[in-house]
Amino acid sequence: MKKLLTGNEAIAEGVIESGVEVITGYPGTPSSEVILTLISLQNRIDSSIQHIEWSINEKVALEIAAGAAWVGKRAMVTMKMSGLNVAADSLASIAYSGCRGGLVIFVADDPGAHAGMVEQDSRHYAKLMIVPMLDLASQQECLDYVKLAFELSERIAGPIFLRSTTDISHLASDVETGEKLSFKNREAFLEKDITRYTKAASSWCISQHQDALLRLTKALEYVEKYISEYRIKVNEMFLNQVNKEGIIYTGAVEGNFKEVIKKYNLKISWLKIGLVHPLPEERIKKFLEKVDKVLILEELDPFVETEVRRIASLMKKPVDIWGKLNKDFLPVVGGYSFKHIKKALEVFMGKEFEPEQDSKIKEKAKELEVKRPTSFCVGCPHRGTYFALNKAIKNLKYKKDEIIITGDIGCTILGMNEPFESCWTEIAMGASIGLAQGFKHGGIDKPVIATIGDSTFFHAGIPPLINAIYQKVPLTIIILDNGWTAMTGFEENPGTLVFNNNQNTQRVDILEICRGCGVEELKVIDPYKPEEAIKAITKAIKYPGVSVVISRRECALQARRRKIQLPKYKVNLEKCTGCRICLNSLGCPAMVFHPKEGRRGPYMEITVDCFGCGLCKFSCPTGAIEVIEDGK
Amino acid sequence: MENNIYIAGVGGQGVVSLGQILATYGLEKGERVKFYKQVGMAQRGGPVHCEVRIGEVFGSRIPPLSADIIVVMELAEGLKTLEFVKPGGIAILNRRKIYPLNLMAYPERYPQEREIIHLFEEVRAKIIWIEAGKVAIEIGLPLAENIILLGAIANFLSLDKDVLLSILEKNVPGKLEKNVKALERGYQIVEGIKQDER
Question: Is residue A369 within 8 angstroms of chain B, CB to CB?
Fold first, then answer.
């Protein structure tokens, strides 16, 4: 049956069709929807899935999936590229030991940095970790390659990487779905073999290393066979007899490449590489034999290109190779659009296919464009926290840009934007607390403040907190606890209140963690109550040791979904002077400013979008904002 | 056959649901479909756009100069679509301006309507004005702007109305009657424009 599925939804479908029993992960754009989809389907369809979870971080998630695979089950772990860095320590060891049940590691890269993070090319991890990697080129492949990856993993007895990019994961396409496999009766057991599952002797490590390398060879053999046996093509070659020009491509560029070929009716040979590690060296050689000139198309680093150049250098026949390593030709940074591919092919083939639109039009349009900066959502509790934080800094007689505030990953980082402009830095999960300690040791005398969200704190914020206490670093940490991993799609985390009587999880309270770590100056505030929030933050900043303020209030979007009702606010037009202090200090999307018109003066309006956080009432100097008493 | 539809607007206008209906239509018709929606930090008021491709298509995004129909739900957002207009293609402009917070006090900084129109003329788009907001209020369903525009698209692309209705039935069962009305009104507005031209 054909379904309209995004790449991530197709992967979820593949998980169901492959009889996977355990699936774990940590949310991260553009990877989150695999587990989100599976959770939403969990009670509606019959599948082999026994356990599905949002783990505390990617390293833990991988260890759980590996454990399940070691006892013989099929298991998958999902993460974004940054998460792979977190999981890498365990992965290096797991890859040496291999696995018994299928273990697939799904990682999504983000060329073009749509989600605002590093443009890391995770294909390098395949080499580094000695793990075969399939690179996804279409939504159909998302489904097909999951099935292939599990078979491959069990065939070679080792983990397999399944790598996607934003363009594949987030786009929807018609996808042909298939039959469900089930392995419900697989018995769970772990063979006791310390030579394979520990690293306590150098001879064991060396033989495990050898085994891992051998698995690569097996994977390639199997993949090349798989093409003929099951008709899912991984590495595919098309030879055109008209000319001696060829393209080697991999991953998400496929769609635009085929589009260019169709649109301009191009005759050209091509080699598609689905298994990017280990590369099909023999096949590449065969292709290079047939062409005189080859262009390599791949997003991010010249990963395949470097290898193709190496292979070509060993051949007797000269081949002219084009790619990113040519000066000023194809960029390493950013994703490749249709335009990039078209232009590259035009230069490569030495002819213009179609003239571009007059660039003056785009320039003029760009000039006129209306910028719509991202701010916090209506009712977002973080608005209250940053509002209070800025006020506290002002109360302590510091200038706005005198106090360093480190930011962290997630919605909380939006505190760097207007109107707050609080956060100065953003590195990685939990890093706000570590970095802040460095600022102090480096000699910053004025207070340093770290801000971090709840899920980010659980993920990697606890070790740097313990370190700060241990090293007695004077530091203020503000934990913005909205109870959800919100930015990536409202996933649950250990601090999420259990609303639907879920007996399978138990809440872990951040307050108790801080107390247990030995935080002495510790206070919970409500960001909807600015007066007490300002007072608590001011006191925390003045404290000479580690102080923690937990600013606690549920994510407004989630609260709204749960039908939480708060009294709404309105503007009393008699009192409103149209000074815009509310708008300029809060940037609330539920506010509309009406400029002076004729004899009528300027005024503010609060729209029906108001959630009722009440911050505007506090900010108004003329007392013009009033609560609507009856809630209507 | 190849149809490329580009829809631009801001969060809360129903840009993505309009695209979703069109993409579902393509699937139900047994065609190949590509559906791109801008995701991420696209909350209420943020820029949102989506692209639907139906037919013999490979790339997930509409190539420049290839959109058969551009739907501009918020005027200034239309400026981002110009490079995709196919010469002679249709640009459906919805007369609606939504000011971001930083422009509220300075409406004069919002681009002039004539400047926007001029650029659409320069790329040789066939401009169709639809006051979807007004019509939606007349129908009594202010949120149905996108369905009115769907009706307009259905007319231009000769879409099968029965299939569209069945999709609406599945997607918006609650306010079906008014949505069906919205679809029909959009369709008829274009019919009227076509007749005037004849």
Answer: yes
